[in-house]
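User: Hey, my collaborator sent me this sequence without any context and asked if I could get a structure. I don't really work with proteins. Can you help?
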Amino acid sequence: MNNSHMQTEPRLYGTPSITIRKSIAWNGGQPSEDSDVLVLSSRSTSDPHSKDSTQLYLDLRLSKPLVPESTITWGFAGIRATLSSTPLRLRWSHYIDSRGRDSGAADEGTMTSCDGEEVETGIGLNPQTGEHELYEERWEDQAVTPATPFAFLTSSREPSESTGFIAILGEHALALRQNQSPNDTKFQAVRMLRIPTSSSSKLEVLFEQNADTLLPLLKSALSEVDKWNGSPWQCGQEVTIQEDCWIVWDAGMAGGEVTA
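Assistant: No problem. I've predicted the 3D structure and written it out in structure-token form, which is a compact way to encode the shape of the chain:
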């Protein structure tokens, strides 16, 4: 692994997060949930609630029940930016998107808290009607086991130019990739789960699509993270995984000392 090239990166703040969606409602209708939604997010470039704060995220939504034969209802990755702090308004840039890049209006939402959940409201494309409608999503953060490694990688130094994204956090691991046009519709995705055992952990592939090369890539990334031995990758570092060069956007140990 080549760890020689380093570049100074901004200090990151807060903690990485694991978020699941509890429900979505359209046009004030009854809330429901037809997808198993997992979002893995890095730390932020400043206070997550302050204007212009940014963080890297991966969002994969799979048909329920979650089985190897599930289908992608939506998958995308990019940068989340805070547009305003009062009210808290966010924008999610989709640098890769299973529905096609730059498809539709900007993905923006306003966040509030209610009964221990984050409530997101905005206007989005209702896949059932094909129309842009008001929506309300309810999100819940999951606990991250302390002293476990996390890593967020991009295939290019500029996330906006990246065609691949990897996130390893807690028991979850995601890898998403989408080639540039004309192969824009071939969306690659892997979701894996780490199952603790008495001695180490077992890896389970929960879902894969077009992942002949992406699955072994994610397994190799997990193996490299397991070799840190208390010395995580540094933000901005170039790492080589299966002969591919990746850029470390964020890395460290959850609940412990993290790198800047």
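In plain terms: The first strand starts at residue 17 and ends at 26. You can pass these tokens on to your collaborator as they are.
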